Sequence to fold (228 residues):
Amino acid sequence: GNSVTQMEGPVTLSEEAFLTINCTYTATGYPSLFWYVQYPGEGLQLLLKATKADDKGSNKGFEATYRKETTSFHLEKGSVQVSDSAVYFCALERSSSNYQLIWGAGTKLIIKP
Amino acid sequence: GAVVSQHPSRVICKSGTSVKIECRSLDFQATTMFWYRQFPKQSLMLMATSNEGSKATYEQGVEKDKFLINHASLTLSTLTVTSAHPEDSSFYICSASGGLFNEQFFGPGTRLTVL
Fold:
């Protein structure tokens, strides 16, 4: 079946450090892949997405590339800020007919000044 | 992006009572709405998927008689937790998709505490 595996958190970094949050998936076919972010006290927001192999999603300095050969969609940012502290969720689309998502467990990111 | 609201944001109730949570799409027509449950420090668990005008599809292990979902219009879905118990205490999140949008938009969530 479809599943998403994320690296466990929390991930603690200093400001301006390089960030990688690993995400791998198992799926039939080639589903769309997503990263969502949940800031403290707020609802989930779509951060970026990729709909096919080799696509790169990007937003707010974050990037993730859809790697079919390694079934991965790792989230990266070159220089993190304190305001990036949040919980990040990787997800894949289970059904393209109604946008149903399968979620990873979430990775809490803590950025220290 | 589109806006989805939830009401109430927090609710505390006594064991045995029923609680209704509303989810509204404010600026688009949501043909599909999803209800999730999120436990502390854990991922979202999909409870059910509802399409406007039809019965909700529940995920395995979710009691449909306990978690009643109604999606009577293109802008409103409700989740009613019937005969709530302390183990139902959780963070409930709805999301909606439809119209010109090919993604889910999430509500801010409702914190339910059952005493």
